[in-house]
């Protein structure tokens, strides 16, 4: 019997800056690492992945993220790049994730990031996607009693 490889989780932040981004990155990295996964942080949202550039992806460790919640901004940077607007953008991201052996994706962002996460999930069964809603524009259609950490 072969032992399955450990999952590879990618974390991507999109949209504008908002308080709490680093806390989500840190908590997700710590939990996934403790569960045996390799965690990859994608710098600058989908900006480079949608062009096939995986050079701005780095492995995140508990040591690296354990205190980032004390910092402002986003440890991984942000981008408003929308792969849905670039012909072949979603396919290029999937190809990038395949090269990186990513099996799970955590996206943090607003409506644009959520729509990209949805497009990626619909395009393949090889990628499990979780979206953490963060909006500074109040444009994610959630029930009125559900707040996001973006506002």
Produce a short descriptive summary:
The chain is an alpha/beta fold and 151 residues long.
Record keyword descriptors for this entry.
151 residues, alpha/beta, Rossmann fold, 5-stranded mixed β-sheet, 4 helices
What structural class should be given to the helix and strand makeup? alpha/beta
| Intertermini distance | 49 Å
Number of helices: 4
- What's the shape? globular
Strand percentage lies at: 15-25%
Q: Could you give the order of the helices and strands?
A: EHEEHHEHE
| Tally of structural domains | 1
CATH architecture: 3-Layer(aba) Sandwich
CATH class: Alpha Beta
Report the CATH topology name.
Rossmann fold
- Taking strands numbered 1, 2, ... along the chain, how are they ordered across the largest sheet? 3-2-1-4-5
Task: Note poorly predicted spans.
Answer: none
Summarize the main sheet. 5 strands, mixed
Query: Helical amount among residues, as a percent range?
Result: 25-40%
Number of strands: 5
Assembly of the depicted chains: single chain
Topology of this protein?
Elements: E1 8-13, H1 21-34, E2 38-42, E3 57-60, H2 62-65, H3 89-100, E4 104-109, H4 111-123, E5 128-133
Parallel strand pairs: 1-2, 1-4, 4-5
Antiparallel strand pairs: 2-3
Helix pairs in contact: 3-4
Descriptive report:
By secondary structure, the protein is an alpha/beta fold. The protein has 4 helices and 5 strands. The protein has a 5-stranded mixed sheet, sandwiched between helices. Helix 3 crosses helix 4 (111-123). The longest helix has 14 residues, at 21-34. The protein is globular, with a radius of gyration of 15 Å. The termini are far apart. The model has no long low-confidence stretch (mean pLDDT 90).
